[in-house]
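A student in our group prepared the protein record below, which I am reviewing. What it holds is a sequence and that sequence's fold in token form. My question to you is simply how this chain folds and whether the tokens agree. Do not assume that whoever made the record got everything right. I have pasted the whole thing underneath without changing anything:
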Amino acid sequence: MTKKIAIQGIKGSFHHIVSQTYFDEAVEVQPYLSFSAVVESLITKKSDVAVMALENSIAGSIIPNYAHIDDQDLHITGECFLEIQHNLMALKGQSIADINEVFSHPMALLQCKEFFKQYPHIKLIEDTDTAEVAQRIAKGQLKGIAAIASLQAAQRFELNILAESIQTIKHNETRFVIVERQQIKQDATLINKASVKFLLDHKRGSLAAMLNVMSDCNLNLTKIQSLPKIDTPWKYAFFVDITFEDFSDYEKGKAIMKIMAEEFKILGEYKNAKK
């Protein structure tokens, strides 16, 4: 049975590239223009799995996606890091001098803002998806408008690349997570990373004590992100990624953290894609 993969964006988007590289088996890609729609497709069982960007090495965390995963009790079952190369593209025959407006996803615009300082005549406009803008330009034969998107998008929609690799920092990487409704059963010997969420007492040293437990149990903190607890002003939930060599170290640390936290939740246990 072909697995149905929900992605944010259309074919040619970076989410689509991940869906093609992460899964070994043939998949059916289901494109959506918002992460909310991606999550909705997963919880209503229209899709089996979702691919969601979670953080970028230049622009930082995509905070709403942490909330999506947490609020809907979804589970991270894997991750994928993708080198992001942003390219400026337009209809064939156009040059940068012909371009008046560039439409793209806010994250893409943020990652390329330095490039456009040399072209003050170009107006930058936020849009829903990188590849969808490329498709729109091709379909409408829109002159004077350019997109920031992947090389695959330029090839798919037969656009001309006006400038390659225009992101401010050339080594630009995005971490994508594979999200499912249930935690899948995996061999414990292959699991060496976990994503957890916890709430702590609002008192001095509570976070430091939790971090000390991680260190004492040989857990390596690779990411910490705080989000406000909506129903309790000035109280925060911490979303943490930890890696480990020995699953038993993680089991020990997890047991202690559960006792120390007011609230403790496992968002996912999976294989570290960086190792």
About this structure: The radius of gyration is 21 Å. Residues 15 and 38 are 11 Å apart (CA to CA).
